[in-house]
């Protein structure tokens, strides 16, 4: 891996200020961040908050509150609802330029117990075949698109688009990342994988990304089987099934603002 989405800002004792690199840049504009890097950074803050608690994250819900600039940002996480079995955690990202909140993440953390004997997946593992070229709009993009390996696959039998994605860069400097953070680094791309519209004609930006995980992810690469639905009034939704190399791990959903260019 070379490069990272964020660098620790020098001279910040609290360690909560990060410089955003150009690798966070969105396909919708080089000065706007793609949704996955902020999701991953806020996930990191929440994982740090529950370390050693005997709980693990079962749901992540990111709300994008405004344009997230490719600029220094400040992050903060806290416990919204405490509990031994169930805990609700929140994390927020603010622009350092104007102290504007730009993204907020809520997460349910649940106590873990051994349920191996009743564990079940409703989807079989996602097959991996020869890679197809990624979409032209992605291959021609800069910023975030250069930070992810995108292995497109043939569409599934129900018409959903399929791709395997893995981050090529670090999250913060060269610091270690967890598998959950690596999943967060790519899961926002479900909107691009399942795109139902031509990016030359339409903008379809997601305002949120919600992830439910019945099993924690493992490994470096994740499969997304995604599809979008577009309503008649400028609103759409993208849903996806999420996989690691061992099988089905959860689902994601995104709300879309759809506008003709």
TrEMBL record:
Membrane-traversing stretches: none
Domain called Acyl-CoA thioesterase-like N-terminal HotDog: residue spans: 28-108
Coiled-coil annotated residue ranges, if any: none
Task: Return the Gene3D superfamilies for the record.
Answer: Acyl-CoA thioesterase, double hotdog domain
Q: Enumerate the spans annotated as Acyl-CoA thioesterase-like C-terminal domain.
A: 124-258
The record, for Pfam families, names: 4HBT_3, 4HBT_3C
What InterPro entries does this protein map onto?
ACOT8-like_C, Acyl-CoA_hotdog, HotDog_dom_sf, TesB_ACOT8-like_N
The name this protein carries in UniProt is Thioesterase
The protein's organism comes out as Mycolicibacter sinensis (strain JDM601) (Mycobacterium sinense)
């Amino acid at each position: 891996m070379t490069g990272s989405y964020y660098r620790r800002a020098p001279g910040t004792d609290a360690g909560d200020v990060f410089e955003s690199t150009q690798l966070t840049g969105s396909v919708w504009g080089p000065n706007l961040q793609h949704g996955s890097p902020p999701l991953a950074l806020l996930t990191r803050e929440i994982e740090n908050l529950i370390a050693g608690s005997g709980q693990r994250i079962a749901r992540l819900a990111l709300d994008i509150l405004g344009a997230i600039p490719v600029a220094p940002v400040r992050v903060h996480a806290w416990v919204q609802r405490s509990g031994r079995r169930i805990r609700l955690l929140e994390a927020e990202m603010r622009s350092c330029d104007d102290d504007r909140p730009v993204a907020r993440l809520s997460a349910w953390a649940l106590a873990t117990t051994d349920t191996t004997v009743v564990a079940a997946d409703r989807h079989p593992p996602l097959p991996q075949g020869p890679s197809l070229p990624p979409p032209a709009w992605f291959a021609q993009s800069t910023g975030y698109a250069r930070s992810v390996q995108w292995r497109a696959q043939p569409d599934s039998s129900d018409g959903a688009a399929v791709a395997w994605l893995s981050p090529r860069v670090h999250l913060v400097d060269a610091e270690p990342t967890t598998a959950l953070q690596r999943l967060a680094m790519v899961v926002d791309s479900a909107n691009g994988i399942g795109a139902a519209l031509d990016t030359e004609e339409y903008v379809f930006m997601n305002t949120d990304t919600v992830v439910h995980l019945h099993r924690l992810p493992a490994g470096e690469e994740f499969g997304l089987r995604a599809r979008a639905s577009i309503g008649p009034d400028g609103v759409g939704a993208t849903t996806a099934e999420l996989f690691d190399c061992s099988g089905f791990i959860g689902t994601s959903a995104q709300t879309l603002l759809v506008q003709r260019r």
